Amino acid sequence: MKIVSGRTGSPHVTSQQFRQMLEGIIGQGSYIITSGENLKPELSSNNLLKIRSGMMAHHGCISCVDIGTYDEVTLTNGSQGMKRIDLIVNRYTRNAETEVENCSWKVIHGTPVASNPAVPAYTSGNLQNGDLVDECPAFEVHYDGINVTEVKSLLSVADGLSELSSKITAMNNIIKNVEITKTNLKVAANSDFRWAWDLPTIPGYYPLEVLAWNFHGDYDLWLNVSTAVRYSTSNRFGIEGHNFGNGTATVTLFVHILYVKNGFCSYVKA
Predict the structure, then answer these.
(1) What tens digit of pLDDT does each residue of 141-198 get?
(2) 91-103 pLDDT, tens digit each
């Protein structure tokens, strides 16, 4: 074990360690980070693609097109009467001798065919595992004859913290986790049990599903539940099972029911 975010008296934080931290925050995949113009592609001509400002994360490695600028990627002409798909990748490289790392755009040309062109292969590595080359597909350029017909972005834009917070707030207004408690429930030894109760009415919401249930109280390990369900026809909750123990069980039942705001996902309402 070694310290990363602390002073040791000499430079010690490596690019790999920094990428590990970012992977824990952003994720281990490939994303466009909300910044600038989010690497928006702009086709200037059949031979030139502009990639606007923004940042990209790939296996924890951050690369960017500076704000207020754009990168130019040269495209190759299509073929008359043929279709083709080219792939634009963000290509990571590391020099094995100097350990110098770099990211740059690279165009991988597809094969012209009469129909149904395939996306060309690329180097699928993982720079965090020490691979010297790791290519991240960012855009597909589709050709029909000599013309570019589509530039397709392949990466999603990752939400920032403010966007995530807004979505969580909105979701909390859509769903509710409602706890129901039933006390002093008794089941004789070696006996079945079947209980049902009306679900509470919450204005503006309807019960959708049983999330979880749990027993607390005086019973051994042989209180078995076979069914715990919301009865859609009567809007009730029911639970049934069997006490396989040698004594009477006296328990408190905790049930969590998912309620959903009226009008939201009503197509799944049973």
Answers:
(1) 999 999 999 999 999 998 766 666 676 777 777 888 889 899 999 988 889 999 999 8
(2) 999 999 999 999 9
DSSP bridge pairs for 180: 255
Rg (CA), the chain: 29
Termini Cα distance of the chain: 53
> To which H or E segment does residue 31 belong?
strand 30-33
Q: How far is CA 149 from CA 86, 88, 94, 108, in A?
A: 12, 15, 34, 17
Euclidean distance between CA atoms 166 and 170, whole angstroms? 6
**Tens of pLDDT along 66-99?**
999 999 999 999 999 999 999 999 999 999 999 9
CB 100 within 8 A of CB 94: yes
Q: Mention every residue, 6+ apart, whose C-beta is less than 8 A from residue 133.
A: 91, 92, 93, 123, 125
Report the distance separating Cα 231 and Cα 223, nearest Å: 22
The per-type count for the chain, helices as H runs and strands as E runs, is: 2, 15
Question: Residue 16 is inside which H or E element, if any?
Answer: helix 15-26
Provide the 8-state DSSP code for 19: H
Which domains, ranges and CATH numbers included, belong to the chain?
Answer: 15-20+28-158 (2.60.40), 174-268 (2.60.120)
Q: How many CB atoms lie within 10 A of CB 184?
A: 9
Tally of residues, the chain: 270
Can you tell me which residue has the tokens 């509470």? 200
CA distance 53 to 32: 11
